[in-house]
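EI: anyone free to look at a 583-residue chain?
SC: sure, send it
EI:
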Amino acid sequence: MGVIVGKSIFPGIVIGQPYIERKKKIDIENYKISSEKVEEEIERFLESVQKAKNDIKQIKGNLEGKINKEDLQILTVHIMMLDDPQFISDIKKGIKKEENNAEAVVKKVSNKYIEMFEKIADPIYKQRALDIKDISERIIMNLTHEDDIDSNLNGKILVIRELLPSELLKIYYSGINLSGIIMEYMGETSHTAILTKALEIPTLMGGNDIFSVDWGDKIILDTTSMEGKVVTNPDIKTLNRYDEEKNRYRNKMKEIEESINKETVTLDGERVYLHLNIGGRLDITQVSRKRPDGIGLLRTELIYMDAVEFPNEEKQKKIYENIAREFEESQPNKPIVIRTLDIGADKKLSYYKMVDEENPSLGCRGMRLTLADKNLFKNQIKGILRAATHHNIKMMYPMITNLKEIIEAKDLVEECKKELLIEGKEFKENIEVGMMVEVPSNVMLADIFADYVDFFSIGTNDLTQYILATDRYSPIAEKLYDCYDPAVIRAINMVSSAGLRKNKKVSVCGEMAGENQAVIALLSLGIRDLSMAPAYIPKVRNLIRKIELSELKEIKIKLLKSKDSQEVKNILNEYLEIIEGRN
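SC: here you go
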């Protein structure tokens, strides 16, 4: 019997048979072609690219409504990459110049891009390398006519070094039911991790040396805590114990389901508000079942990424009005926070050429980009102002660095109002305006920013990365990327305290908002508004109903004295054990 530990990505307990996928490299022949066959070979390559695009579009279409639209955006990115003229041109030139077969040239060119991106420190480029690997393998499989899905995988726990997003979606789309996933690759913020959460597959990442292990016929995958584990070759005693654990976990899930229709109130009667993070489309069934207190983050970049050109003012007004109308059908009078366009870094638009930067995460993105293109910004602001006329809509700015940007944005909003007035268009005069807290300068100057905005929303994913100067996608550096680091905890406390002093609402909309341990920490720091993916609302509501806020005063003191993330986690886990025993 052995134990492998790693990071839990989606919770669950699975007892089952492992399916070991020692990912075979596609056997690519490298052979010369005659000059007369060059155009024919280029055509064969272009046909495989078109097939790849058609396959992705088909999978995307079939999964819409089953998976959140923002999670499917990964596939839109892959389609855009398959349309990239530079990538296509490099391969066509390679076939012509080298007179080699298409498979060999695709592999050579994609490896060149992958190596180039992997050398760059910025995490966005690390993810870009994985995306190129994904699309190039898809093209090569089309050229070689290889099918990489084995029906024997059905009902088993997949053990694999690295699983690409397209591979996971292809498995799901083909009707194969994965019981769980164990990966050696560590990337809790990667596209694959996002999809495993969306598909609700118990997943562990970061298991070391998984192919040197004797797996046996049956294994136990336990991802119910932050540190997940796999038990290989379990004995009868361990299997029996985990059968009981599985039943307890099932009962806990039933309890969570039953709390859906209850109020999100602590044991000592304080109300906590749970909001949704969504993209450009609402799943009304999910909304009515989860009973959220509003939409805390509407990511408008997904609306732009789905378009073929910049949506004009009129189109944006209609989109935002439709979302508000749909939401209000089941959740009347609840607030909707629309975040202005946040492109740059890992988010691109196929119809907008951005400047290539060495470090896009620190470059022209979010408000930096939209303030540089004032017409783009004003176009969206007018759409939001008009849509807000008869709806409880607020707006929020992403990636603010300094006060000058807030003042400039405020002036432009006033400019938009004057223009709408002259044009005789109805709009909301007193719309609430907030800002994302994502960079250290926001934390240090929170009390000053509070005088210029109506509310804060802490984006813990980016804030953690920028405070710790850590590459989220690096297998080595990612161990440093930890939202439980005392520096992050103190930063959240500083913003929460500033909001309290200035009577400004502070919410959290990053991954932390959906994690049990993090929810305890956030409530202890004074946060009463959380925004998360729809799937997390029931479990967070159930947890909050077991918490007594008076008990969190001592926890806050301990957290702010902590020296490292492990100490923080120990404090939170200790309290979590206490409250999970409460009915």
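EI: The domain at 2-24+149-237 is CATH 3.50.30.10 (Glucose Oxidase; domain 1).
SC: 👍
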